[in-house]
Amino acid sequence: MKTVQDLDLTYVCTGCGTCEVVCPANAIKIKTKEGQYFPEIDMGKCIHCSRCIHICPGREENNRTSLKTCFPNSIYDKSIGYYQATYIGYSIDKEIRFKAASGGITTTVLLYLLENQWIDGAIVTKQDPKNPLKNLSFVARTKEDILESVGSKYSPTHTVSAIKEIKDKPGQYAFVGLPCQIRAIRKLQEKYSWVKEKIVLTIGLFCSRGVTYKGTEFVVDKFARGTRKIKSIKYRGDGWPGGCRISYANKKYTIALKDYWDPYFANYFFTPYRCLVCGDLFSEGADISLGDAWLPEIKKKDSIGTSIIISRSKIAEEILLKLKEENILHLNICPKKAVIISQKGIIKRKINALYARRILFKLLRRPVPKEDKDNKDSYAVKDFIMAAMMLFNAAFSKSRLGQKILLRVPKDVLLKYRNILQKL
């Protein structure tokens, strides 16, 4: 194989954009296809150097041996990876906390680092102003830029592509991304000194799985007026756990998280195939990893937002403790057991049942990423049933017929189906 185009991209590609960054001939562009991002190669420009295929992070899982060099003197845990400390907390700024998806930690950290000249900018993602149904990753250099990126994006991003903008510019930057994108940055830092020098902090978001743009279009068709003349769509924020807010010129719709996530996305409809063979829930390669604090006591009393925070590196600890000391972040130590409880259900499905999904993919002669020896777990028959359901649901929702059927199936039926899947 010479280029990433020789791979079965539907099953291998994460759409991160790493191949676009390393191509010396500028022959690769990331394009949308079937609601996902994939590389497209101009073979007239391609010099067949094979850099793209060798760097591709979609071909392998996290290599925890190499991550150990990123986080020396850190504690190792099989579920959450290397870490220095685990916290629970939120931004002291009430407006940021309210606007953010779950506590405003990322926004607050980036604003502090930018305002105090620790960084010159941050690679983040916002809604594309030219196409509200899509995302745009960019280099944020001002407070206003960072505030534009607040909130979750339950749709694809090729965030790594954006680091091309900083290659020939001075400065140091933070990078905010999903586990697969953080893995890509670590691979780039191993091979390209400019990436290591310029990306000085990575903030990774907990991720159960991605959702294709077909999922966004479905939500808009199901709960609003459809995709025509849409002005904006925001999935989270304005309180916790927030809801999806869809705006048109003269009409706005708000859909509770449980109404669109539980019957549709929690059932693995509109899930990219590559996400089904990913076991990285906690963004194990990031300096700071963040996610919702789905703890019973938090769910009972919190309507603004609280985060679980995993600090993995020395720089992460320094930043977090400094912001706590200056009363910018509210932070308390969170026992590792509570971190696990906060993500208990998705750990069971994403991490513990991963090996069964890998075996299923191999039986179906589908490519799977090179596995980390630490990720081999035991499996049960129920894990194969769950794996088959996930794969079927992802495939079913890719077709136009499947989407039309889903529009008509009663929500209560889909919620019962979800309960079966989650009880396996």
Write a structural description:
The structure is a single chain. The strands form 4 sheets. An 8-stranded mixed beta sheet has the order 7-6-8-9-13-14-5-15, sandwiched between helices. Helix 16 crosses helix 17. It has helices at residues 9-12, 18-22, 51-55, 64-70, 94-99, 105-115, 143-148, 179-191, 193-198, 213-223, 257-260, 296-301, 314-325, 336-342, 344-352, 354-363, 381-396, 400-408, 411-423, and strands spanning 28-33, 36-41, 75-77, 81-83, 85-91, 121-127, 135-140, 173-177, 199-205, 230-234, 243-248, 252-256, 288-292, 307-311, 329-333. It is an alpha+beta fold and 424 residues long. The mean pLDDT is 96. The longest helix is centred in the last third of the chain and has 16 residues, at 381-396.
- End-to-end separation in angstroms reads 39 Å
Work out the radius of gyration: 20 Å
Strand elements, count: 15
Query: What is the tally of helical segments?
Result: 19
| Helix vs. strand class | alpha+beta
- The low-confidence parts are none
So what's the overall shape?
Answer: globular
Give the averaged pLDDT, no decimals.
Answer: 96
Largest sheet: number of strands, sense, barrel closure: 8 strands, mixed
Range of strand content: 15-25%
Strand order of the largest sheet: 7-6-8-9-13-14-5-15
The share of residues in helices is: 25-40%
